[in-house]
Every structure is written in structure tokens, then in C-alpha cells.
Design brief:
With 321 residues, the protein is an alpha+beta fold. The protein is built from 7 helices and 20 strands. The protein has helices at residues 32-50, 58-64, 74-89, 99-104, 154-173, 265-278, 282-289, and strands spanning 2-4, 12-17, 20-26, 69-71, 117-118, 135-137, 142-144, 177-181, 184-188, 196-201, 213-217, 221-226, 231-234, 237-240, 243-244, 249-250, 255-262, 293-297, 302-305, 312-313. The protein is globular. The two termini are 19 Å apart.
Length: 321
């Protein structure tokens, strides 16, 4: 399940970016062009820095140089620190050293280019090097990856971009801003009178017509992780994009989707990704965080934690937010 913003709206724009759909909403129509410029610049920066799929990205250069020390940019350092913090908070359930495992499963290119049904079996799963083996000095920005270690910052970098874009756009325009990158959604500035009305759907790009569950967000962020949308088949087996660092394999299917509300999109994304990986153990772990959470099982049953409200109907497309 991913978040979907009902439309149309005169203060809204959407376009493809980072392999997903980007949506920008502002509370004042006149602020939309400036906010869009800020968002596009942030997306370009995070793509140049953290993309696994660009041969000229900083991440690609760093992965190719694994085993040797290098100095990283300020932007990469911020993204890496966010990923390392996520690994620490989740005790490694969200681990940035899953890059080689992702590639081995076939997710070694943009998702639209992934073979939907590859007859070749994947290679045997490799042990995950583990985030604790990364040597990084934030003061000097010197990074040393263990040999044969590839980083994948996808679990946190996109959320970080949403946080930064929303914060910077709100500061520049003085109005309320909502940025949605796929299922990663961040807000900043004053919200609309009744909050941002967020519809929940299995696929943000294909919302259910009419009514469905929705929430009103007055601040902070929302993130959804799921195993239904980004899937492909390999040797007759259905795979998805959330890897369990303990096995190097896709996380065992327990939750169809997990949606989390938090102060930042990075924190919300960290928790939702960890919950998918943790499976049944996610309930106890999430209770310890006290974050509002909505988990949907494979059979559609819903578990709400942390004060997540009962489901309310979403407005029809074009309704209020």
C-alpha cells in the first residue's frame, strides 16, 4: 500500500522521478513554481549522489572502490549518516550493505528495466557484510567500505530527499508544502485547515476509484513500505525489493503493506521498512517505538498501533485534502 494524493488541484504538480511518481502540493498556488524548482533540484542532487543505477553517481564510484578509503561529498555524507542511523535504530533490520544482494536478485537496474520473468535462477544468497563494518568519519567525511561491499541507500535516501525538499520549499515560499515520492511523504509549513487528506492505496499510481481508507496529516511525515508493487519473477519464484539482511533474500511475506507516521520521512520509512523485514516480530518492535502504524496482512486484515485512527473514507478524486 502506498500513499496517493487525490487530484486535480491548482496548487499541485506531479511527474516521474527516481523511478517513481513525484507529487508536490502547496497551500498557495502562486508558490508552486518556486517550490517545484526546489523539489526538482533536490531530486537531481539525490540522484547524482545516491543512485545505484547511474554509472556516474557518487554511490557507484564508492561501490566500485570498495576496499579503499575515499572522501565523500557533504550530500553523500548526510545520506550515509541517515542510513547508518536507520541501521542502528532497527538493529540491522534496515542495512545499507544489501547492495550486492539486491543486484543478485535481479534488481540491478531501474525497476522499469528489471526483467519481469527471468528464467535464470538467482545466485546463492551472499552473507550481508553488515553496517557495523563500515568505517566512516563524519568530521573528515572519510569512508572505507569492506572489500566486495556495495551500498544501497534506497531505503532512506528517497525519504531524505522528501524531507529536504519539503523543508526547503516551505522555507522559501512561506506556505504549506507536501512532497510525495512514491510512498514517502513529507510535509512542512502550515497545513491546510483540515490537514492534508491522504488516501491509502495498494499502488499510489493506481488509486482505487471512489472511496477507501484515508488519514488527515497536519504535520510530520508518512511512509509506506510494501511487497506487492515492486515484484518480479526469477526461475518461477516471485521476488520483491525489500531484502532481509539476515538472509540476503527478500523478506518473508507477512505484511502486505506497513504505513507509519513520524516526525520525519526518514524515520517513517525506516520503521515501515523494518516492519516488513521483521514480519511477526514487527508488532512488538513497533509498540516499543510508539509510532502510529497501520499494518495490512497478506489476507487483508488490518492491525493499528500507536493510536492510528480507525479507517475513514477517502474523498473521491478531486475532493478535499
Amino acid at each position: 500500500m502506498t500513499t496517493h494524493i487525490p487530484k486535480p488541484s491548482p496548487a499541485e504538480v506531479s511527474f516521474p522521478a527516481l523511478g517513481t511518481t513525484t507529487a508536490l502540493l502547496v497551500t498557495e498556488s502562486a508558490a508552486l513554481p518556486a517550490a517545484e524548482d526546489i523539489l526538482r533540484a533536490e531530486l537531481a542532487a539525490i540522484d547524482r549522489t545516491c543512485s545505484r543505477f547511474r554509472s556516474d553517481s557518487e554511490l557507484t564510484r564508492i561501490n566500485l572502490g570498495a576496499g579503499t578509503a575515499t572522501t565523500v561529498s557533504e550530500g553523500f555524507a548526510e545520506a550515509l549518516l541517515a542510513a547508518l542511523r536507520a541501521a542502528e535504530l532497527t538493529d540491522g533490520a534496515v542495512d545499507p550493505t544489501v547492495g550486492r544482494a539486491m543486484a543478485g536478485l535481479g534488481y540491478d537496474r531501474t525497476f522499469v528495466s528489471v526483467r519481469p520473468d527471468d528464467v535464470r535462477p538467482p545466485p546463492p544468497p551472499r552473507p550481508i557484510p553488515g553496517w557495523r563494518r563500515i568505517a566512516f568519519d563524519p568530521r573528515t567525511r572519510r569512508l572505507h567500505l569492506p572489500p566486495h561491499t556495495h551500498l544501497d541507500l534506497g531505503a532512506t535516501a528517497k525519504a531524505l530527499a522528501a524531507d529536504r525538499a519539503a523543508r526547503n520549499a516551505a522555507a522559501a515560499t512561506g506556505c504549506g508544502v507536501l512532497v510525495s515520492l512514491g510512498g514517502d511523504l513529507a510535509t512542512a509549513g502550515p497545513a491546510p485547515e483540515h490537514g492534508w487528506r491522504i488516501a491509502l492505496a495498494d499502488d499510489h499510481a493506481r488509486p482505487t476509484a471512489g472511496h477507501g481508507p484515508a488519514v488527515a496529516l497536519t504535520g510530520g511525515a508518512l511512509a509506506t513500505s510494501g511487497i506487492r508493487v515492486r515484484t518480479w519473477r526469477r526461475a518461477g519464484r516471485t521476488l520483491h525489493h525489500i531484502v532481509d539482511p539476515a538472509t540476503g533474500e527478500p523478506a518473508a511475506p507477512v505484511w502486505r503493506t506497513v504505513t507509519i507516521a513520524a516526525a520525519t520521512c526518514v524515520d517513517a520509512n525506516t520503521a515501515s521498512t523494518a516492519a516488513i523485514v521483521l514480519g511477526e516480530r514487527a508488532l512488538g518492535w513497533l509498540r516499543g517505538t510508539a509510532l502510529p502504524a497501520r499494518l495490512v496482512g497478506l489476507d487483508g486484515h488490518v492491525v493499528r498501533l500507536g493510536g492510528w485512527p480507525p479507517d475513514a473514507d477517502a474523498p473521491a478524486p478531486g475532493g478535499s485534502r
